[in-house]
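writing this on my phone so excuse typos. first protein, seq and then structure
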Amino acid sequence: MKKILGHTWKAVSYNLGNLLLFEIGYRILTFFLAMQMIDHAIDFSLKRQGFSYLTAENYGEFIKSPWTIVLFAGILALLLLFFLTEAAALLWGFRHSASKRKLYASDFLVEGIKGVFYFLCQGKLAWIFWAVLALPFLAAYFLIQETSYVGLLEFTGRKIYETVQPHGLLYALIAVLLLISLCSVSALPYCFLEREKNARGLRRGLELFRKHWREILKGFLILYAVIAMISAAFYLIAALGVTGGVMLLKPEEGKITSILIYKEYIQIAMGVFAGGVQMTGSLAFVYTVYSRFRKEKTEEVPLCYLTRNYAWLSKIGRRKGAAFLTLLFIGAEGCYLGVMAASHDTVLESLNADAQITAHRGGALRAPENTLSALSYTWECGADFAEIDVQETKDGQLILLHDDSLKRITGLDKNVWEMTYEEIQDLDAGSSFGEEYQGEKIPTLEEVLNFCLGRLDLNIEIKYNGRNEGIVQRVVQVILENDFQDHCVVTSMNYQFLEQIKATAPEIRTGYIMTMSYGSISQVKAADFFSIRYDYVTEKFVREAHALGKEVHAWTVNYRGNVKRMLDIGVDNIITDDPALVRKVQNQESGTKTGFLELLEYALGI
């Protein structure tokens, strides 16, 4: 095993400099190209479907649209082509390195394009599919890391996780997929490096894995441990560098916000870097195993024929020309990244002192959620609002409850619409939080309004479960009967609920809850403000909302750095489990000077 890993390093190190130039340039280009294509595809599909925006409510209709399916299928096909080109480039590069031939970054690209061309011409589509199955194993870290930056993909991943029950089944499916993917990885050298039909190459690759699977698995475990250490070192060095730069160059009031902005770019770079290391190391190891059990004839490396016919290149020489083109390419990408980073660093001069604070679920940090005890805590800690969740019982009573089921809060595995108010009154909503709250009851909306009048304003979220179509009118009625319309806002993820409120009681302020947002919000007429998950809140979104005369409420913000970030970009209300923390940050009571170690913690996400 030690010998195989040694040969793996030799395959990588012989052309290491130009290999790194190729990987950096290729990965940055394809990553940002993919991001741009996805954003444009979402906008185009939204327009074709007549939506001005995309959020959780219309997500199902959007994702099932033929426009969305066709556009994303095309993007997926292009991404797979990018993957095959990179795999072919690396494998051919390792073959030439084994023969002690020097390559330029441009040679890697040409070899990749040639390799993919021959590969696609050799076999049927089904065999190409099997080769593409190598992607999950070779790019697992990259796929996980970078998917988190595409809101639609991240939201889709969460939906899949919530849908597939039990979760153990999902993990088993992922494990099976990775095992199949590993088998496909073993076939890639045969598919790209040998002039034979893909079917035979795949069979030979699977036979190689079958005979040497123990050695291959052991090698990958060692290799990935090394890759993990290299990636961790890269992340630490990047975080230290960015932290030092912020300490020296940024004003005190903008340091935390700046470090959080740059942290996002560090994580993007981390995904690109670690993904490239994983891909390169994995294919180098597979090539070493492949070449160990096969004697192969090598061919001369062709000149970079895509550029050699240019007159200027023949004058300055291939070496200088390749170096010039490579540096120009990397420099252009570096400038692009710099401009992007600078455009997002719009730190305000001071904290938004007027931003209000809302306690999430009535004040669930110190007491059982959506109870009078929680509201008492919220009032005592000085929050401006308490956010509560309203559901409807079987007999039409309005109560405070977040989930459709009563199990998490009371232990009873029944849905709220299956229980009468009298039955729910017998349940204990406090013991699950702590013994001192044993016997705490689930209150009605009317009880809560009477308790909060003159003490605390409310953010009343109307939950939609498909069985409470008449709930809006009942909520409005209770608010008006208790003269609470000037002391509350009403929110919902169901936009039709907001339209019903405005048609019945336009004086009640409404907020549209958005788990994600793409497109324009200019047509959302029934909402006076937008309540959006904090990691989707951007400077651009806040500016657009304010230009429309509407507020932005960010939820659920519990981390000091994120609180500071939301205040700096100008949100109007922060919904949090910890109102005291938000107030401290807002008043700058936690200290006027931020030290290097504290900034480093933000950069590392500790």
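second protein below, same order as before
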Amino acid sequence: MSTRRTRVLATLTAAPLALTGFAVLAPESTADDGPETIAEIQGRAHLSPFDGTDVSDIEGVVTAVSRNGFWFQSTQQDRDPRTSEGLFVYTGGAPDVEIADAVSVDGTVDEFRPGGDGGYDNLTTTQLTSPTVTVTGSAAVPRPVVLGRDRTAPQQTVEAKDPTSVEYDDVAFRPDRDAIDFYESLEGMHVGVRDPQVVGPTASFGEIPVVPQGTRATRSGAGGVVYSGYGRPNAARVHVDDALLGDDDLPAANVGDGLRGIVSGPLDYSFANPKLLATEAPSVRSGGLTRETARRQDRRELSVAAFNVENLAPDDEPETFARLAGQVVDNLRAPDVLALEEVQDNSGAEDDGTVDSSATTDALITAIREAGGPRYEAHWVDPEDKADGGQPGGNIRNVLLHRTDRPLQFVERDSGTPGRATGVDRDRKGAKLTESPGRIAPSSPAFTESRKPLVGEYRFRGERVFVAAVHFSSKGGDDPLFGRWQQPVRSSERDRHAQARQVRSFADDLLEADRDANLVVAGDVNDFEFSETADILVGRGRTQLTDLPRTLPASERWTYVYEGNSQVLDHILLSPALATKGRNHPWDRGRGQRGAPFTYDIVHTNSPFADQDSDHDPQVVHLRMR
């Protein structure tokens, strides 16, 4: 945890601000005077200058009602875009007001942090508690502030500076520059977005990340927004949320779809994201997205794929296995070698000491055959019980599958044990493994309670090929993009850096024994293609690996869609021999890889779709061998 978070918040005052074109008004009321308007309560900052203060006669019109309160908005606005005109009134139960009621409210100003003790990273929302509400009549509900038309969020800047916490009193409040301030300046107001574009699929918990038409950012081929570098996330997205829809659900939407008309409601914040709480369920305009299909390897190509199958267990529904098998056969076109991540043991999540996973792999292999695919054979090393992280009792591990109908053989040599690392030897044909299948550095502290890399040795048309399946530690515990700590601390990187160094060390050993060794590193690295984790894996000099996501056009660099950001988490890396051999061969050149002796494709079958078989997209490389 960063030591910066131990600072005590000082008494909040309005920070000085220079904004071109913004109205400069008289100073706000002081706490001694007491606020007269919602805008004065909200203030020009993330925390109200009246936090903890009793206020009275705050007037406005009800714009939305929830099960435990309501939002109301000033009808006489102060014309300062830095101060929100909306506010939530917490009643604790169903409020006795209706939309369009004119009300006067007494209560206590409170900064509510969603999630309680578990919401340490969250921003607060300003609200009135212990209210006395008087309905004084009725009034027209203010039309929504339309994002992208009336107000436009900074497109790819959450916070331009490094203020430590946006809640500290000396931090400039810049809605024109920083998206985190932009959404604060609209907190509680009636906000809308017209014909928004969907940039993340409908989530199971009832959210759709969207951006306004005309959002300027690196767009994916599917219509999403690509996370192309630290400091350049999709800051324009807002999550349409179903919290106010009662029995209605948000429709299933895929990346590239659109929502029809104006979607509107109060702008709220929870789970580290700004939320537009829709008051009516929108309809979907299809963008026509379809699942991609890789090309089939030719007889001299070796195809290697990686696929995170998301906690696959033998007690999953038969349809789960059938759909995953369909992706292997129809979308990946039955790759020669398949590196799987998140394969659970024979008892699934039941914590009963089981570590073998043959029932899981057998079920998938059978499903592939039933889907019209070839016969596969599986190899792995059982982990120690509860030593590899993941779902408790599930004992997830990496598994290697290979086709038995191709000129490909698995070299089984002294199959490894959970705590013993495979080594590298050399004979007259080059490098070889001491154990196959084997584990890379399983006793290293880098892999404590995390998945250990699995490596296997193959023969393809007489050539040795080594495939390492990896699954590094997740990003859990990192600061969120829209949290109060800015810039966000990515504490989980330490684990992945250490894990990458261990895999890099294995690659160095292999390539020192044989500089022409054919090595493929494939799997869920849980980090971006521009990250230091990827840089460590790539290395330098004559043993430098080629990270294949970096060879694609920017619009195609994504294997995962998270909160409206299309991003790379899964990688395939090639040793120099595989990345350079046959450069002048006039075979399929591949997208963005002209002249390369391989074709690489991220096969978008899951991450942009509401109907997913996994949360990751698989990837496949076709390698030109002899």
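The chain has seven helices and 33 strands. thats all i got for now
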